[in-house]
Amino acid sequence: MSFLIDKISQFINTYYLDPIRTDEGYNLVNTFTWAIVLGICIFGVFRLLEKLEVKITPRFIISVLPFVLAGSSLRVIEDSPADIIHPPLSYLLITPNIYFLVFAVTIGCLWLSIRLQKTGLVKDFHLIFAGFGLAWFFANLIILLHFQEVLAGYVPLFVIGAGTGLTFAFYLVARHFKSSIFTDPLNLSILLAHLMDASSTYIGVDKLGYYEKHVVPDYLIQLTGTALVMYPLKLIIFIGVLYLLDTQFEDDKQSSNMKMLIKMVILILGLSPATRNTIRMMLGI
Question: What is d(CA 87, CA 138) in angstroms, rounded to the nearest whole number?
Answer without folding.
Answer: 24
